[in-house]
Every structure is written in structure tokens, then in C-alpha cells.
Amino acid sequence: MRRVLNDPPRPRRWPRRTAVTLAVLLVAVAGLYLRNSSTIAGQEDGQRPFLLAHRGIAQTFDLAGVTADTCTARIIHPPQVPYLENTLPSLRAAFDAGADQAEIDVQLTRDGRLAVFHDATLDCRTDGTGTVGEHTLEELRRLDVGYGYTADGGATFPLRGKGVGLLPTVPEVFAALPGRSLKLDLKRDQQADGEALAAFLATLPPDRLATVTVSGGDAAVAAVARRLPQVRTSSRAVIKDCLLDYAALGWTGHVPDSCRHRELPLPARYGRWLWGWPNLFVARMRTVDTRVILVRGEGDWSAGFDTPADVAELPDGWAGGIWTNRTDVVAPLLIPG
């Protein structure tokens, strides 16, 4: 029988097989979402973020316009603290303020000592010239590591004269800060630097070695990992391998072996693409003894969470670590209420 033109249209029906397929897909998507939803992993009661003090308590500066050649000591904010980065007073102050771990920068001197200093050259921060590797430790001790700091374009140098003799060695830092957790950042990506650091670390008792993290270039960090696989490590290759493997497998809840016993410094802009971000991802990494450290910054350079406004940017209930130059400012803001 033919339908006449004024008959109402018949409702469209999905074929039974198509309807079943759509229902299965919806259930699968819902399951995938729920399995990777960060709402099922929150901050534990009484827990605050892990605080990584970047070079102790350090002078801060604006990252706008900073390049690889910028002397950041020449663009600091007006000093609010008297400390110089990578020195024992700075590191002690960070721990006293509530830091859980402090990062120091490591380079080999001409006489094979493990000096704690950041820059590739001495010209920016000190009254010396050349590189750390071109000087003996005795020569470096005579430098003023506060010489080059200025907040007003060179009109005044408020920290000049206050850093003479303050450049420490790695063994001195460990001796001065017993029981403290340290992250050692190898500034030169040289196998020799990694081997020299590994030789020192091998002298530490197992309980102290368990508190150590080593980061830096791929070759330098790999040299440490070969000799001391029990040490937590972080490098570009380490981070890349972990995150690529997790991107492929993390939706299942499985954490790949490449992520085991690592430290992952991540800007929030990368984290949002990870399964379970933010707190479920952190919780999963914790099951394999890996620490997630959140850093600020949207450009080529990382920045610390150093002000109340910075802390306000943290994901709700953030359960991982944060990277800061001002533990004294940040720690009081993170004490659980």
C-alpha cells in the first residue's frame, strides 16, 4: 500500500546492529574516562606538595626575553633575601623553610673536583672569567659568586662582596646537610662528569643514596645510571621514553617500566595530555617510585612557583611536587588547613 502525501513521516529507526555497536562504544568511552579520571585520586589528608628548592633559596628574575645567552644575574628582581644560589647558606635556608629536596648544579673543575655552580662561564655571576673546567677548585674559591648581581641595570650591585669563598663542592654539601634529600644536576653533558659524580655517590651508605636524584644531559646521566641503577634519574631521554610509553599504555592504568624510579619535571601544558592528569597520573607514578615535579612556564625556559599568584595556578588538590626558588614564600601557603 502506498503512503499518501499527507501521512505523518515514520520515525527513523537505527538498525539493531548499529544501535548495539553505539551502545558498546558509549560504555567503552565512559569506562575509559572513569578509569583515567583524576577525580578518583585526590590529595591525601594532611599532605602538601613535595617542595623542590631550585638551587636553594635564590634570587628571582623575569623570564620575558631570556635567551641562552642572557646573564640572569644582571636582571634580578630587587633582592628580598640575602642568599646566593648554590651556596650552603642558601641551601640551609631552603630546608629550614620547609623544602623536601634541594637541587644543586654540578661541574668538574680542572683538577677533577665536583664544584657546585650553574653557569657555563664565570663571567656573569662572578669576578672571574672562563669556565669552571678551566680553573682549579682553589682558584674558584677566591671568586666572589655574588659579584655580578644587579637589579637596576648595573647602577648598584647589592650582593657584591658577599659571595667570596662560598662556592662549595658536592662532598661538602652532603657533609653539611646530613639526611637531606638532594638533586644533582650535571651541567655538562659529558660522560666524564657523570662517572666522577657516580664515583662519589658510590661512597654513600644505601640509605643516603636512596634520597639522591641525578639529572642533566643524556650521556652524563646515563654514566651515573650504569654504575648506580638504584639512583633516581632524570634527563631528556628518560622523560621522553617514559612519556611516550605511558601515552601508549597509560589508558589501561599500566605504568611502563621506562617510568620506574624516575623524576619527571613537567609544565602543566604537557601534563594535560597525559592519562589521568593531574592527580591520578601522580598517584600512578608514585606506585613505581617516580616523582612528578610541576614547573611553571610556557616558553623554552622553566620557571618556579615563587609567589602567591604562582601557587594559585596549581591544579586543584595537586598531589605531586613543585619547583620553586622561594621555599620561604611558598611553603607557608601550602600547609594543609
TrEMBL record:
Residues 69-334 form the GP-PDE domain. GO terms for biological process: lipid metabolic process. Gene3D superfamilies: Phosphatidylinositol (PI) phosphodiesterase. GO terms for molecular function: phosphoric diester hydrolase activity. It holds the Pfam family GDPD. This is Glycerophosphodiester phosphodiesterase. It comes from Dactylosporangium aurantiacum.
